[in-house]
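Chapter review: from sequence to fold.
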Amino acid sequence: MTSQQDVFLDSEGDAWFARNAVALEAKGSVDVPLQLISQLKPDEPIASVLELGCSNGWRLGHLAAELGVRCVGVDPSEKALADGRRRFPSLELLHGTLADPPIEEQFDLVIVNFVLCWIDRADLFSAYTAMDALVRDGGHLVIGDFLPDHPQRRPYQHVSDSQVFTFKQDYAAPLLASNLYDEIARTTYDHDHYVPRLAPVPSGARAVCSILQRSLHGRFPLV
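The token string follows.
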């Protein structure tokens, strides 16, 4: 059976970009990850940023302009990457997936926003392993996705194959349970309107974005 990773590599990555390219133009001013990152005050200056699932690099383009640092992006869509290389020539944009990224170095800041929900469950632990390996000790991970009341899956409406799903769950929880990450910032919001709300958000539309800090030994005091 074809994995969801293969579906996005073969066609759906390009199709997603085609559907969303125009909307991406205006997202910078209302983007929750960018809003959280703007409030981040790290002990050491951020010198490198990686986004896994970067589309055409629009978010990295904002960060490169604001921070003046090296920005690298990975995405399964060749069309999105080609568009990004034209728009943002200072970015390093690479073809690949979260579960099998084409890069091995570590970064000060890694962003994974609404990518894990599309990962085939057979590849989920590979994705976590790959993601964790790319965050330097003391570095930060921005992780955003759906946050329903309980784990659930829904047929992915843009692919006719009923075996392709959107998986919704708390994706920060396994990282926090490992004791290798601290959550230093978190905001929930309505995904359908893409803005924070004080009123309750329906479970299926609730989204969350967190900034986690990786520390290999910080949460393991010597006794």
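Two observations follow directly from the output. The mean pLDDT is 91. The longest strand covers residues 135-146.
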